[in-house]
Every structure is written in structure tokens, then in C-alpha cells.
Amino acid sequence: MKKYQLKIDPEALSDIHDIAEWYDTQKEGLSDRFKNAVIKQIDYLVENPQLFSIRYQEIRCMIVRKFPYMVHFYINEELTTVNILAVISTDRNPLVWKEKTSRI
Fold it and tell me: Checking DSSP bridges between strand 54-56 and strand 69-76, what pairing results, if any?
């Protein structure tokens, strides 16, 4: 089984930070639960990126368990990397990322 390297776009890190900050205002400890869920899901993602289907263009999505967010990523087989582009609410249309995905 191939091991993939992880690359996280700075905007995706900003998404995670902003979401965690919002959860901090909602309930004590909720931001930690969110961050732990994201880390656990990303660890799984790097081991098994092909398990997630392509949703649009070459972008795949993975739901963050117990939270209404999806990790949007693509696989670069040539470089054996998983590139995370964004973490966005499941309520938002993923096509808001169209200009970002046009570079892929």
C-alpha cells in the first residue's frame, strides 16, 4: 500500500482555525473536539485517499465526523501527495472553490 505525503493549503489551515474559534464561542471544549476530529480524519485520509469519490473536477470530499464540515482535497499520484484545499461547511456550495480548483 502506497503512503501519501500530506500538503495542506494555508487557506485550509485558516479554515480549520476559524471554525475552531467559532466553536470556542459556542461551548467550552468544543473547538478541541473539532480539531481532534479533523486530525483523526486527515490521518485516515492520508492512508486511504482513494476511498473518497470525486465530487467535482478532480476534487474529493471527506466528511468530518460529528461536525457539518467537509475536507476538500485532491490526490497527486505523480508526487504521491494528498493536497487539502479547504474545510468548508456542508451547507455551502463547493463550487465556491472553482477558481482554486482550476489550477489543478
Answer: unpaired
Instruction: Report DSSP letters for 16-78, one per residue.
Output: HHHHHHHHHHHSTTHHHHHHHHHHHHHHHHHH-GGGSPEEETTEEEEE-TTSSEEEEEEEETT
Q: Which domains does the chain have, with CATH numbers?
A: 5-101 (3.30.2310.20)
- Output the pTM of the full model: 0.84
pLDDT (tens digit, 9 = 90+) per residue, 25-71? 999 999 999 999 999 999 999 988 999 989 888 999 999 999 999 99
Residue 31: C-alpha distances to residues 2, 36, 66, 72, 100 (Å): 32, 9, 12, 20, 27
